[in-house]
């Protein structure tokens, strides 16, 4: 019998990653004894509903499809999204767990809206807001279509997706925005083979998340920062682990992260960094005291942007035992909840 294993690290060799995933994130049938009982019960008889903005489906909007899910939902609901653009601001309420959005990998549906911080507040400007637990998205594009901030318009930051629920997984999804693209707000999250595009703080929040095989792309010019993790104390135990990822962008001078709050934790492992990464790696802290409270690490990364000779002095020198924590499903307690994408 195969079980998810919180202790076996992701292999250094990229060709071995898929086999590691298949072994340690096996389907439900092989892991009922280790998963959360509520999740096992929810997966017993999934309900599949369809949505298509052009018709020929049960619902014409994603919002209407979600409204059909009862509060207190206890069964997996798989919403099959037809190709097309869904111009709507979508919120999945806390009382509606076990929702899965699935699109066509060859013609991915797009959730798009132009909300901004000026109108909604930063975190509530998101085109897709997930407040519920046990969410999953597969082959979905989420975009905030508001224009790039120009430094003059107040409240121009615009979130693509906000994930505030616990135990969420994203497979082969794409997130487009500029400032504050993904609000990785709180809870345990897993991103695999995704794409995130933005300018400044384009992954931010207090989530505890693993990004595996994810492409991080910076657009625009001037100062760009990938992460603004919002750890507030040493006891919080949250952070972002980027494993076998790729960092690209336009121009140069991209920072891997900055200290939005006092105790950010961000680690890049086995990640390819192109020359767009600033040689110092991480943005200087605004307060000197943060030099002793931030945790920024790089482990066996490659590419011209990975050279550590000129990194800021507060970058962690991670050894293999310490790196292990960021390379295992234990970082997100994955053996209790993480499942592979559904086979439909």
TrEMBL record:
Keywords carried by this UniProt record: Aspartyl esterase, Cell wall, Hydrolase, Secreted, Signal
E.C. no: 3.1.1.11
Lineage: Eukaryota, Viridiplantae, Streptophyta, Embryophyta, Tracheophyta
Superkingdom field: Eukaryota
Localisation per UniProt entry: Secreted, Cell wall
Spans traversing the lipid bilayer: none
Source species: Microthlaspi erraticum
Residues covered by the Pectinesterase catalytic domain: 49-334
GO MF, one example: pectinesterase activity
Pathway(s) this gene product operates in, as recorded in its UniProt entry: Glycan metabolism; pectin degradation; 2-dehydro-3-deoxy-D-gluconate from pectin: step 1/5
Top-level enzyme category: hydrolase
Annotated GO biological process: cell wall modification; pectin catabolic process
Protein family (similarity comment): Belongs to the pectinesterase family.
Alphabetized Gene3D superfamilies for the sequence: Single-stranded right-handed beta-helix, Pectin lyase-like
InterPro entries per record: Pectin_lyas_fold, Pectin_lyase_fold/virulence, Pectinesterase_cat
Protein name: pectinesterase
PANTHER family: ACYL-COA THIOESTER HYDROLASE YBHC-RELATED (PTHR31321), PECTINESTERASE PPME1-RELATED (PTHR31321:SF69)
């Amino acid at each position: 019998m195969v079980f998810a294993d919180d202790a076996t690290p992701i292999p250094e060799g990229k060709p071995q990653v898929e086999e590691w995933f298949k072994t340690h994130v096996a389907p439900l049938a092989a892991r009922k004894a280790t998963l959360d009982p509520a999740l096992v019960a929810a997966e017993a008889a999934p309900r599949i509903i369809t949505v298509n903005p052009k018709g020929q489906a049960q619902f014409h909007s994603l919002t209407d499809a979600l409204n059909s899910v009862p509060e207190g939902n206890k069964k997996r609901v798989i919403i099959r999204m037809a190709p097309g653009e869904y111009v709507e601001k979508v919120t999945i309420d806390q009382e509606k767990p076990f929702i899965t959005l699935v699109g066509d990998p060859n013609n991915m549906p797009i959730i798009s809206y132009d909300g901004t911080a000026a109108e909604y507040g930063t975190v509530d400007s998101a085109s897709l807001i997930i407040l519920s637990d046990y969410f999953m998205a597969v082959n979905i594009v989420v975009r905030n279509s508001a224009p790039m901030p120009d430094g003059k318009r107040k409240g121009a930051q615009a979130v693509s997706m906000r994930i505030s629920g616990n135990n969420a997984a994203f497979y082969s999804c794409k997130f487009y925005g500029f400032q504050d693209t993904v609000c990785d707000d709180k809870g345990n999250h897993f991103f695999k083979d995704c794409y995130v595009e933005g300018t400044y703080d384009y992954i931010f929040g207090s989530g505890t998340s693993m990004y595996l095989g994810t492409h991080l792309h910076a657009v625009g010019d001037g100062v760009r920062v990938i992460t603004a993790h919002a750890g507030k104390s040493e006891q919080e135990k949250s952070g972002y682990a980027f494993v076998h990822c790729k960092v690209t962008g336009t121009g140069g001078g991209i920072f891997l992260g900055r200290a939005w709050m006092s105790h950010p934790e961000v680690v890049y492992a086995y990640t390819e960094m192109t020359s767009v990464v600033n040689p110092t790696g991480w943005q200087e802290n605004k307060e000197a005291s943060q030099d002793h409270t931030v945790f920024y690490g790089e482990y066996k990364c490659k590419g011209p942007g990975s050279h550590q000779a000129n990194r800021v002095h507060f970058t962690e020198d991670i050894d293999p035992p310490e790196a292990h924590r960021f390379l295992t499903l234990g970082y997100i307690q994955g053996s209790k909840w993480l499942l592979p994408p559904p086979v439909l």
